[in-house]
Amino acid sequence: MAVRFAPSPTGDLHLGHAYSALLNWQVAQTTHVPFLLRHEDIDASRVRAQFYTRIEEDLAWLGLEWPKPARRQSGHLDVYRARLDTLATLGVAYPCAKTRKDVAEAADSAPQLGSEGAAPLLERPSQSDIADTLHNGAAYAWRFDPRVASDLLGAQRPVFEEYGRGTMTADPFRLGSVILGRKDAPASYHVCVVHDDAEQAITEVIRGEDLANSTHLHVVLQALLGLPTPTYRHHRLITDAQGKRLAKRDDAASLRSLKDAGATPASIAAMLGLDPV
Ligand code: GLU
Fold this sequence. Notes:
Layout: E1 3-5, H1 15-31, E2 35-39, H2 50-62, E3 71-72, H3 77-90, E4 93-96, H4 100-109, H5 127-135, E5 141-144, H6 146-153, E6 159-162, E7 166-169, E8 179-182, H7 189-199, E9 204-208, H8 212-225, E10 231-235, H9 255-260, H10 265-271
Parallel strand pairs: 1-2, 2-3, 9-10
Antiparallel strand pairs: 4-5, 5-8, 6-7
The protein binds glutamic acid (GLU).
Glutamic acid is lined by residues 6-8, 40, 193, 207, 211.
């Protein structure tokens, strides 16, 4: 049993990250489970080495502790690849050579299945197109096929408990034909996160509302891979004075800038409407 905070080492932590980390910390304290840190660093083109340390320094400054060393996804690429292989064997992941432009055009005329607001679905290529894609040497991605997932799951759709919303039925169509891996990369965020949450025995996933749709896919992948489903809590996103969601490039809201301007861990918690650590 555990909770986790899972940033990507691509920039400094800002107030939004602090909110997520502190909420996880509070739940860890009140339910007496470990608080884990996980570096989600599979996108080598965006990761910068200095941010592993800077993230850990900022979390320690806030007063948080976790078992060390923190897990780094980049050290487990083989297991993510194996998970993707399983999904490919099930027919749930298929190779697709469509470019971004092809996808945008196809999405315009693609059917929308599943619940309202679900992303559009791409037509699945024929077996001979798939064989060409695999063997002609060009780049391709592994895409999720919600139709196959839906058939495999049958009438018994997996469910999850969502804080504040109750029991939810996972909708395999919610993210449409989303990418699960690339020819030249082990797997996408979705596959890694589902594997790691099981591997690290995460019992409650606490993360931003922006990932609420992804949760539907994650619960479907857990059912297909025979992994346990944690409970989920999606928290509000912290915005700037103009109401715009904070991004890594908003230096003014980084914990370091706030600290330099005189903020303390207690004032950060107060700014976020949370109890001090
Ligand atoms: N690595 C993701 C992010 O930084 C968080 C993923 C998660 O909590 O599931 O947005």
